[in-house]
């Protein structure tokens, strides 16, 4: 097409300066997108960056709910998402009308909600959490406060067990983390008996039970930089291994397998929609843009502001 022959890296650099844009990328993005970004991080880091930036344009290499958070916190900026179809299975598993009915069925509960959710569900919630902030935030909520937690039942279940809570869980899952195979993981552990396993709390309990470290993407990356051995099994989306290999090149990082014995089925299909070509076009055209009606933005912002103040 018309993009052949373009030096995409150079063009993206030129447009970034010309449009006074900042490029934010999640750890699950393709290596070339991580490498061209001004900042790479987990969902909490990225929302803080979006709230603080003085750029005119935020080009968000991640999924749509993350770009929406950027727009909610920085409404005067243009926020572009290279591919507007970059959704999230957790968001899809929690339709706002059903979540509203769930809330109404439990009027004495507050709603603690994972950031991997639609803007409408955020607007129906009291406090948003990310995987890196959930425990800190929950520890500030009295033990006798009744809580509903959605959409991720595995993250909710993990926090319930770890913190002795009994939050009522919405039955949502992430299709990516759900796909790890316990049998294949045990086979891999047998091949690498000294390698610890680091897992994201979106993994089901049969994966978390075999893990030595459980945490957010930034937590897992930090573990990869500091663990004492030389091989690590990584039970989260495998694109994060790019940052590990850059930070600790002499160590070996192995993606935990799915049922087919390799880690390719654990690539997030939504994150994978963003490409260098689409990033270039989104900076050139300042489209596709995230646009949010102001009343909805203000309602969703309340629960996000609660997160930012309780997480800091
Ligand atoms: P983190 O907040 O840990 O980066 O997780 C985001 C995500 O989508 C995990 O699947
Ligand atoms: Fe959503 Fe799972 Fe992809 Fe994260 S990895 S964006 S939770 S589908």
UniProtKB/TrEMBL annotation:
<feature type="binding site">
    <location>
        <position position="174"/>
    </location>
    <ligand>
        <name>[4Fe-4S] cluster</name>
    </ligand>
</feature>
<comment type="pathway">
    <text>Cofactor biosynthesis; NAD(+) biosynthesis; quinolinate from iminoaspartate: step 1/1.</text>
</comment>
<comment type="similarity">
    <text>Belongs to the quinolinate synthase family. Type 2 subfamily.</text>
</comment>
<dbReference type="Pfam" id="PF02445">
    <property type="entry name" value="NadA"/>
</dbReference>
<dbReference type="InterPro" id="IPR036094">
    <property type="entry name" value="NadA_sf"/>
</dbReference>
<feature type="binding site">
    <location>
        <position position="43"/>
    </location>
    <ligand>
        <name>iminosuccinate</name>
    </ligand>
</feature>
<feature type="binding site">
    <location>
        <position position="217"/>
    </location>
    <ligand>
        <name>iminosuccinate</name>
    </ligand>
</feature>
<keyword id="KW-0662">Pyridine nucleotide biosynthesis</keyword>
<comment type="function">
    <text>Catalyzes the condensation of iminoaspartate with dihydroxyacetone phosphate to form quinolinate.</text>
</comment>
<feature type="binding site">
    <location>
        <position position="131"/>
    </location>
    <ligand>
        <name>iminosuccinate</name>
    </ligand>
</feature>
<feature type="binding site">
    <location>
        <position position="268"/>
    </location>
    <ligand>
        <name>[4Fe-4S] cluster</name>
    </ligand>
</feature>
<feature type="binding site">
    <location>
        <begin position="114"/>
        <end position="116"/>
    </location>
    <ligand>
        <name>iminosuccinate</name>
    </ligand>
</feature>
<keyword id="KW-0479">Metal-binding</keyword>
<dbReference type="InterPro" id="IPR003473">
    <property type="entry name" value="NadA"/>
</dbReference>
<keyword id="KW-0004">4Fe-4S</keyword>
<dbReference type="GO" id="GO:0016740">
    <property type="term" value="F:transferase activity"/>
</dbReference>
<keyword id="KW-0963">Cytoplasm</keyword>
<keyword id="KW-0411">Iron-sulfur</keyword>
<keyword id="KW-0808">Transferase</keyword>
<feature type="binding site">
    <location>
        <position position="26"/>
    </location>
    <ligand>
        <name>iminosuccinate</name>
    </ligand>
</feature>
<dbReference type="InterPro" id="IPR023066">
    <property type="entry name" value="Quinolinate_synth_type2"/>
</dbReference>
<protein>
    <recommendedName>
        <fullName>Quinolinate synthase</fullName>
        <ecNumber>2.5.1.72</ecNumber>
    </recommendedName>
</protein>
<keyword id="KW-0408">Iron</keyword>
<feature type="binding site">
    <location>
        <begin position="200"/>
        <end position="202"/>
    </location>
    <ligand>
        <name>iminosuccinate</name>
    </ligand>
</feature>
<feature type="binding site">
    <location>
        <position position="88"/>
    </location>
    <ligand>
        <name>[4Fe-4S] cluster</name>
    </ligand>
</feature>
């Amino acid at each position: 097409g018309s993009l052949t022959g373009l030096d995409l890296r150079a063009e993206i650099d030129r447009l970034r300066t010309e449009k006074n844009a900042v490029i934010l990328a999640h750890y699950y993005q393709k290596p070339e997108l991580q490498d061209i970004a001004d900042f790479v991080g987990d969902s909490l880091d990225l929302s803080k960056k979006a709230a603080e930036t003085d750029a005119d344009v935020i080009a968000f290499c991640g999924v749509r709910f993350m770009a929406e958070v950027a727009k909610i916190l920085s409404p005067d900026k243009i926020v572009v998402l290279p591919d507007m179809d970059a959704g999230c299975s957790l968001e899809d598993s929690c339709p706002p009308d059903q979540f509203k009915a769930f809330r109404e069925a439990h009027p004495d509960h507050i709603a603690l909600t994972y950031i991997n959710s639609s803007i409408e569900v955020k607007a129906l919630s009291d406090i948003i959490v990310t995987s890196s902030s959930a425990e800190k935030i929950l520890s500030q909520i009295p033990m006798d406060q009744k809580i509903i937690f959605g959409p991720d039942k595995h993250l909710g279940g993990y926090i319930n067990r770890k913190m002795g809570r009994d939050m009522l869980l919405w039955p949502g899952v992430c299709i990516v983390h759900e796909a790890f195979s316990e049998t294949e993981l045990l086979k891999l552990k047998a091949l690498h008996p000294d390698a610890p396993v680091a897992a994201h709390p979106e993994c089901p309990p049969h994966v978390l039970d075999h893990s030595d470290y459980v945490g957010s993407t930034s937590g897992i990356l930090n573990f990869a930089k500091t663990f004492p051995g030389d091989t690590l099994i990584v039970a989260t989306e495998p694109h994060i291994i790019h940052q590990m290999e850059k930070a600790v090149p002499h160590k070996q990082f192995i993606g935990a397998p799915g049922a087919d014995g390799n880690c390719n089925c654990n690539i997030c299909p939504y994150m994978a929609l963003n490409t260098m070509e689409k990033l270039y076009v989104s900076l050139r055209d300042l489209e596709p843009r995230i646009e949010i009606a102001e009343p909805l933005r203000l309602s969703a912002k309340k629960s996000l502001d609660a997160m930012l103040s309780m997480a800091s």
